[in-house]
Write a structure and sequence with these properties.
Oligomer: single chain
Strand content: 35-45%
Low-confidence stretches: 218-224
Shape: globular
Number of domains: 1
Structural class: alpha+beta
Number of strands: 13
Distance between the termini: 28 Å
Largest sheet: 13 strands, mixed
Helix content: 10-25%
Number of helices: 5
Length: 224
């Protein structure tokens, strides 16, 4: 297990990818390459009726995520998020299938890359981006509801250090039924931040501050 903990914080390095569809389904995937819980993928799925479902690979991941985010149903399923040729990521979790085809490096990637890694992972800078820069750049990233700093249900301060952003094409199905083209959907309400309103692949470091993050694992998970 890769123990990504520094000064009481917990760090998850990887990607967040997802999209919403004309069916009304909204799918957000965490593809975590390094974390205190090891390497894993999870799926947050908001159904057309608004029911929020967590698909987690094991009980430990389920309990951690259910402590910090809001769900109506918790399920342990085999979850895979495999990268194939051209950077395409194919996700499989229970009844959900998602394929994301990111675009090449564009102006958004170049703009984000101007910040040294040490700066973009600094807590004070992330908070500054959330308060000051977010209102300026959110229309450019289709990210009106995206936050980089906030408080989880467990009372932990969570921050997202964004390293790269790629617009993407996405297709998905549930129980073999195609969900249709990508489309704007209502916010899913998993946590304090929403995923961009268009299909995207985002490389991030998610930082949970302090003991409240770890304590969520031992608490009673929210949801069904």
């Amino acid at each position: 297990m890769d123990d990504r903990c520094h000064d009481g914080d917990m760090e998850f390095d990887g990607h967040i990818l997802g999209a919403s569809f004309t069916s009304g389904d909204r799918i957000v995937v965490g593809r975590w390459l390094r974390s205190p819980l090891g390497s894993f993928a999870d799926v947050m799925w908001c159904r057309p009726d608004g029911r929020r479902v967590l698909l987690a690979p094991d009980e430990r991941v389920r309990d951690f995520l259910a402590g910090h985010y809001a769900f109506d149903e918790l399920r342990v399923e085999r979850v895979t998020a495999e990268r194939t040729g051209g950077g395409v990521i194919r996700v499989s979790a229970g009844p959900v299938r998602l394929t994301v085809r990111p675009s090449g490096s564009g102006w958004a990637s170049r703009l984000l890359g101007l910040r040294p890694r040490g700066l973009r992972t600094a807590k004070a800078w992330i908070d500054l981006e959330d308060r000051v820069l977010r209102p300026l750049v959110r229309p450019l990233f289709a990210a009106s509801d995206v936050r980089t700093s906030g408080v989880t249900l467990a009372g932990a301060r969570e921050r997202y250090a964004i390293h790269d952003f790629r617009h993407a094409e996405a297709t998905a199905s549930v129980d073999g039924v195609d969900l249709g083209p990508t489309a704007l959907c209502a916010p899913a309400g998993f946590g304090f931040s929403e995923f961009p309103s268009t299909a995207a692949l985002v490389r991030v470091t998610s930082i949970f501050e302090g003991d409240a993050a770890a304590e969520a694992v031992s608490g009673r998970p929210r949801g069904g």
